[in-house]
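Q: Hi! First time asking for a complex rather than a single chain. Here are the components, and I think there are two in total. Is that enough to go on?
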Amino acid sequence: MRRVVATLGLSAALLWLGPAAASTSVPAQAAPAPAAQAAARVALPNREGSLKFAVLGDFGTGKREQYELGTQMAKFREQFPFELVITVGDNLYGSQRPKDFVNKFELPYKGLLDANVKFYASLGNHDEREGQRYYKLFNMDGKLYYTFKAPKQSVRFFALDSTYADPAQSAWLEKELQASGEDWKIPYFHHPLYSSGERHGSTPSLRAVWEPMFVKAGVSVVFAGHDHFYERTTPQKDIVHFVTGSGGQLRRGNINRRSGFTASGFDTDRAFLVAEIDRDELYFNVISRAGTVVDSGVIQRRKQP
Amino acid sequence: MAGTALALTVTMLLAPPAARLWPGVAHVAVQEGNGQRVNRDAKVMAEFEERVKAYSTLHRELESTIPSLPKEATPQQINEHQMALAALIAKTRAKAAAGDIFSKDVRALFRRYLARVFQGPQGRDLRASIMDENPGRLRLHINARYPESIPVASVPPQVLQALPKLPDDLEYRFIGDRLILHDVHAHTIVDLIDDAIPH
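A: Yes, that's all I need. Here is the structure of the assembled complex.
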């Protein structure tokens, strides 16, 4: 059923799930069909007892496309009951007055919020930091960076503040990563360490500080946003990096496919990622606004060096 | 090499507390081989830290007079809290002006140290990171609300490492090439340095 497509001799081996998964090489010119919002077919194991979660980034526009993707997420959840969503920032664009929290967050994801899906936010450069870190539905508890243990499986998330990566945060991160006894340590934040975006691209200044910590702690996957498309990198120092910045915004055709580290990309419509962790494997699907699975696979957990 | 390291250690041990808290002071002085400059820079830095401390104390005193935010605040409550605190600070610091905290000497010192950071091997990346979605030149006023609906320019870890640590209620930001001292809870501009990023 599965076939290995990229092991590169690394522990973060990537496997395809099989025929249910769409090709990851989605042609850049492939036009979406936003009107046809059929629910995506689940190409995940959907096992009992696994941790199921979604990843969303750069979404809070309040525009039609955001609402349509929110509807798609709720539809998908009927088949694949993810219990939490991590956000990689730019949760609200533009004005961030009280009514904007309703129009740019509470209404687009009403279906998920009504089903008690919890959102755990990290903040991007468009987010009004004070307004959001205390906002109940973002579960940040007033903190700009924080960690929490997932309700199932041996998983711990680390929500980081990449806009203001001060020495105190880096010291905290190193300590928390080392103290974490969980098998999966999953950092997520806004500015990508690796991205093929022509508009923004990678963030080398941040990479220089955080990547060695991730490598040392046995991190297998990192989620970020900022560039308005979806991208999965080939393993970089054994870590797979996801850019999931097309939750509401889109920068069409912005992936530089000559960057040398793109394993898969989708820059023709909005998309979100869903993942399932069962013991040592993380399965993922990336779903477009039209309900198409545009990337899928499974990542094997790295062992801590 | 070993001599430089030893000199640095000795300089730091002999330096005033401000210099020990902020290694950049001693580091640059060693390279310049100028003991007098160490003392002068440390003094300027100590003055800066005193002013920051005074502002922070005022901020906390004023914040304690308004209802504290509940742990699970609504956007409305957060907004009202910010506005109330900002109004109190503006009233109390009615005569505040640019340079009250970033004095002339502090501005010169910050520019010198930032210049060193940006001249380093990562300078180009750091500048690109700060200028990425940087809103550019805007008209800014002390005590005014931080401009709304604009992206927040990143402050890279290497830059924060080079600047003195701030209390939790303050942070550095960049708007254009200006370095802003931002009151986090009140969401206001406390002070600023023009041309902080070397051209």
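A: Residues 1-36 of chain A have pLDDT under 50 and may be disordered. Let me know if you'd like any chain examined more closely.
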